Amino acid sequence: MVEKLEKTLIEDEVVSRFNAPIPGESMTNSPANPNSWERPPQHVDEDDVMKELYLLLTDPGNLQPLINLIDEGTPLDEIAQVILYQGYTSGKYNPDLMLLLIEPTLFLLISIADYAEIKDYVLYEGEENDPETNIPDDDVVPVDMDGDGISDEPKQKTKKEPDESSVSSSLLAKIKTDLPSKVKEAITKNGDV
């Protein structure tokens, strides 16, 4: 999984327009051998897919490399995008369900990072330069234009992270009880993060 993830994250490769499929080429494929995403999906329920993703991500062979990716500064949204797109192209779910899975998958990745004690994970690329997530310095004095004692400056928006309501109760219970021990085991087995 990690090799596929690292290969997919490389966006600097030059793509030749002559290597692309001819428009309409997919319409000439044999109906007897459709692509994975052209068949009915294997899953139609969000909870079933999240349970499968939980088992996939917490597998001992996948968990430590995933923790290393997060610790190296790979944005969590890119990891989630690769994981979810891979599931879609293999026919596990349709694109609509894939979009519904974004927030719970990010919550799961954030939980893995928290239990691995990675506090400076990157949620999305460019997060540190985003003016909406910057916290003002302590020496900034609020402006009170009308003299009522209340600052007239607009409130700064805080970074919105996925919350527990985006995950089913059964998966949330696994995240809170089972995940910490799996992460600790992966870290101790393969050394510190």
| Secondary-structure class | mainly alpha
The rounded Rg comes to 21 Å
- Give the total of beta strands: 0
Largest sheet: none
Low-confidence stretches: 8-12
CA distance, first residue to last residue: 19 Å
Q: Helix share of residues?
A: 40-55%
**How much of the residues is beta strand, in percent?**
under 5%
Give the averaged pLDDT, no decimals.
79
Shape: extended
Your description of this structure?
It is a single chain. The protein is mainly alpha-helical. The chain has a domain at 41-126 and 160-187. The chain is built from 8 helices and no strands. It has helices at 2-9, 46-57, 60-71, 76-89, 95-100, 102-115, 169-177, 179-190.
In short:
With 193 residues, this protein is mostly helical.
Give keywords:
single chain; 193 residues; mainly alpha; 8 helices; 0% strand
Question: Layout of helices and strands, plus pairs?
Answer:
Layout: H1 2-9, H2 46-57, H3 60-71, H4 76-89, H5 95-100, H6 102-115, H7 169-177, H8 179-190
